């Protein structure tokens, strides 16, 4: 079954935005591989392909993409340990599934999200660290209550049976409440943390700012409005903690 | 026409035993036949062009083998080089005045260095280049030259469907930038031929060569020997490239390799080291005797994804140094690398393999840590 033309128009718009971010990366960051983004774009534009949800179901109102092994060099290696690490990279694997009908509404825009980052450093040995920003869904059972969108660190991303952890206490790290990240917002997050030179170039490009704002509205606005609405009613004039960029620099 | 009757017209300004030896080298194998076109000193450009075209149009010959420096010091030397005559022949074929045909360059290594490497624009003219040496690899060259003729003939028959040409029904699942040059544009066979060899075969991604395939699977080709061939030709045969010139160049689709590995092991290839990849392959395929590759001297990671182009051995790109290339990479192509040891030992220098200038600082830093 092919996807309806209305839904395909929506998917083509999202594909076009992914193409814009890939072009920005090609233009400003020579050492980012954009091939994996274009593979995701090809599937998003293909009306024969409907993304599959975790439970195996498909619905033509679902859109999404997988970014496989997107790599960025890690530039911020001045504070890192062990000292022998000479080069490092961040590897993103992202799986996003969402309902077309909920985009740009006040409902949760995403159905499934797995924003998985592995950091790999090389020195006298190979070192790993990782974290993910996920959406907790009812199918992922857990004993601990935690926020629906959360960040969690992973001290053993390669699932080594005998990880060499030194003095680190290996335990499930806390699931810290975190705003959802799609690929476009994720680029801001990854570059600002690991490749600040690239981030400083990107935020000077008006096309990146436009794109980022668009996704802040689509992905973050429903999330933060819903949270703020917990303490209603509030008077807009009482909100004096400004500007919001003090809380989060990307909110320009 | 029987495939064994594929004939190349050979033009050279030399006229000595070395020429006979080259012709016999090909003809003795009986894969393709090479016949020298008699030329006389000072033959003018237009007459040479017409003589070549007559022989191609009549299908007596299907390809052209040409020495680089026709204007050299040979007894039959001409006033112009292979580059100018080939350029004219390409233009004529592009205007569809003749069928398109392969043009292969041969010359001594010194002449190639002197002329061809310096003039980058001319490198696009030739489908294949081989160096005249003391011990030419005739079986390899014959295979390529035969494949070129078959490929050109296939395209001359009017095939212009990308999925047929590249032997894959789901090309639309790949990065659209790769094949977009052929969409809604007038193309001639040479466009496909040139793109296939220079862009798809000579670069990494979306196709990969055998050494990189083995690297990604974590395998030491020599140590694994027949087990490697079994694995390559059974489990991963579906990933083998079957498109234009497939019978001259062995390549595999990178994305299909990753999918097959996931299908048979349930794991993600890039997140495993060589020992883990090989253990999973052995367990899930039942093929015994696969040996995991070890890192090159000075390296520690076995999360291999590429090779050191000097040693042709597996390498984790994070430990590699990008190679200086004459052409800028396309955004979908992966760089080629050298290992630190190859740089320190100056391996590959004779093949012009040297690290990209931007890597110099990193190399110096690493050298200090080795002392």
Describe the structure.
The complex is a heterodimer of chains A (252) and B (371). Chain A is an alpha+beta fold and 252 residues long. Chain A has one domain (5-246). In chain A, 30% of the residues lie in helices and 22% in strands. Chain A has 5 helices and 6 strands. In chain A, a hairpin with a 3-residue loop joins strand 3 and strand 4 (126-135). In chain A, helix 1 (5-28) runs antiparallel to helix 2. The longest helix of chain A has 24 residues, at 5-28. Chain A is globular, with a radius of gyration of 19 Å. In chain A, 30% of the residues are buried. Chain B has 371 residues and is an alpha/beta fold. Chain B has 3 domains: 3-155, Rossmann fold; 206-293, no CATH class; 308-371, no CATH class. Chain B is 38% helix and 11% strand. Chain B contains 13 helices and 11 strands. Chain B has helices at 17-27, 45-57, 82-94, 109-116, 138-156, 162-165, 189-201, 210-216, 221-233, 254-265, 274-285, 340-344, 360-370, and strands spanning 7-11, 33-36, 63-67, 103-108, 128-132, 207-208, 252-253, 306-308, 313-315, 321-322, 337-338. A 5-stranded parallel beta sheet of chain B has the order 2-1-3-4-5, sandwiched between helices. In chain B, strands 6-7 form a two-stranded antiparallel sheet. Chain B has a two-stranded antiparallel ribbon with strand order 8-9. In chain B, helix 5 (138-156) crosses helix 7 (189-201). The longest helix of chain B is centred in the middle third of the chain and has 19 residues, at 138-156. Chain B is globular. The model of chain B has no long low-confidence stretch (mean pLDDT 91). The interface between A and B is medium-sized, with 28 and 26 residues.
